[in-house]
């Protein structure tokens, strides 16, 4: 997932924080503020990367009649071994895929591949599942396909697709399901997100809240919690807490009944002092998931 969200954030600071969070799990970003933030706060010299890419104004400034020249310029402007992305829906995405990339510039695209380069075609409008599969079909007809070990179609390595419009948890699942139904491998497509990635969330998105659970008053420990009769979903945990792994699952033990020796939480900031200075690679390692532990497609198809 590539971060296109900088220009849609409410401030540079918002973009930096949201973009840094995105980079915990990904390395593709156009949000420069996030890189600066992670370099300053988490000692990461370069947390993310990008590639040369066109956008609509750099294509449409050539005029409708000059679209072929604009596309050719993208191929010629950068060294042969580079990956470049070219937005291709300025006027007619189907014509651009079939006539421009698939015919007029076909040999130039193939030549780029001989030096290890890749053209990434970017549609940016329409119904994402429909558009992605139709673009793949057109490009497959023009450049051919191979079949991977799982029986799915794969474009040649010198041409790929990126879908950066209308991306969300829900639409990602729909796109991949439509690709699967039409026998296309997911390795053909990269994804990006702008409007939804950095700030289309609130504290209830993942039910995140900070609550006091324990206090010492006049040298006496007191459990601190709320338990509203009108909504049990707002009950808060009480007492001294520990986070332990029980039967392979992270489990919070309340009321001081946990084993402090097994507590996975450690003090990081206390009384104005930073006790543990994690670097960004520490955070990335901690965030890693075993692919066998999660059904990605089922997760992405949730109605979020």
Tell me how many strands there are.
13
- Biggest sheet strand line-up: 1-7-6-3-2
How much helicity do the residues have? 25-40%
Average pLDDT rating: 92
CATH superfamily of the largest domain: Aldolase class I
**What is the name of the CATH architecture of the largest domain?**
Alpha-Beta Barrel
CATH topology of the largest domain, by name, is TIM Barrel
Domain tally: 2
Strand percentage, roughly?
Answer: 15-25%
How far apart are the termini? 18 Å
The dominant shape is elongated
Largest sheet: 5 strands, parallel
What is the name of the CATH class of the largest domain? Alpha Beta
Contiguous helical run count: 10
Please state the CA-atom Rg, rounded to the nearest Å. Answer: 24 Å
The topology string of helices and strands comes to EHHHHEHHEHEEEHEEEEEEEHH
Helix-strand makeup class = alpha/beta
Low-confidence stretches: none
Question: Could you walk me through the main structural features you see in this protein, from its secondary elements to its overall organization?
Answer:
With 304 residues, the chain is α/β, with parallel strands linked by helices. It has 2 domains: 56-193, TIM Barrel (Alpha-Beta Barrel); 214-289, no CATH class. It is built from 10 helices and 13 strands. It has helices at 12-22, 32-41, 56-60, 67-77, 93-104, 106-114, 128-143, 169-181, 280-287, 296-300; strands at 2-3, 83-87, 118-122, 146-147, 153-154, 159-163, 189-193, 214-217, 220-223, 242-246, 249-253, 269-270, 273-274. Strands 1-7-6-3-2 form a 5-stranded parallel beta sheet, with helices on one face. The chain has a two-stranded antiparallel sheet with strand order 4-5. Helix 8 (169-181) links the parallel strand 6 (159-163) and strand 7 (189-193). Helix 5 packs parallel to helix 7. It is elongated and about 80 Å long. The relative contact order is 0.11. The model has no long low-confidence stretch (mean pLDDT 92). Pathway: Cofactor biosynthesis; NAD(+) biosynthesis; nicotinamide D-ribonucleotide from 5-phospho-alpha-D-ribose 1-diphosphate and nicotinamide: step 1/1. Residues 1-245 form the Nicotinate/nicotinamide phosphoribosyltransferase domain.
């Amino acid at each position: 997932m590539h971060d296109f969200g900088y220009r849609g954030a409410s401030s540079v600071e918002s973009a930096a924080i949201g973009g840094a969070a995105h980079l915990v799990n990904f390395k593709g970003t156009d949000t420069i503020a996030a890189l600066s933030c992670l370099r300053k706060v988490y000692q990461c010299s370069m947390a993310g990367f990008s590639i040369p890419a066109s956008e609509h104004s750099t294509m449409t400034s050539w005029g409708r009649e000059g679209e072929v020249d604009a596309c050719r310029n993208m191929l010629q402007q950068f060294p042969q071994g580079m990956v470049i992305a070219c937005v291709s829906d300025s006027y007619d995405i189907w014509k651009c895929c079939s006539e421009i990339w698939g015919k007029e510039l076909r040999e130039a695209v193939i030549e780029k591949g001989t030096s290890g380069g890749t053209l990434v075609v970017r549609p940016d409008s329409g119904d994402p599942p429909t558009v992605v599969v139709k673009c793949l079909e057109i490009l497959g007809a023009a450049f051919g396909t191979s079949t991977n070990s799982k029986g799915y179609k794969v474009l040649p390595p010198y041409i790929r697709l990126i879908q950066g419009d209308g991306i969300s948890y829900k639409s990602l699942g729909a796109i991949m399901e439509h690709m699967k139904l039409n026998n296309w491998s997911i390795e053909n497509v990269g994804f990006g997100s702008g409007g939804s990635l950095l700030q289309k969330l609130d504290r209830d998105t993942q039910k995140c809240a900070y609550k006091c659970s324990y206090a010492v008053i006049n040298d006496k420990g007191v459990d601190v919690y709320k338990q509203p009769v009108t909504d049990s979903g707002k009950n808060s945990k009480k007492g001294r807490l520990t986070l332990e792994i029980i039967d392979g699952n992270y489990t919070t033990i309340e009321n001081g009944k946990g084993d402090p020796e097994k507590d996975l939480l450690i003090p990081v900031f206390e009384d104005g002092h930073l006790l543990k200075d994690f670097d960004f690679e520490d955070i990335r390692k901690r965030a890693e998931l075993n692919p066998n532990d999660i059904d990605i497609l089922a997760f992405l198809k949730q109605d979020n």
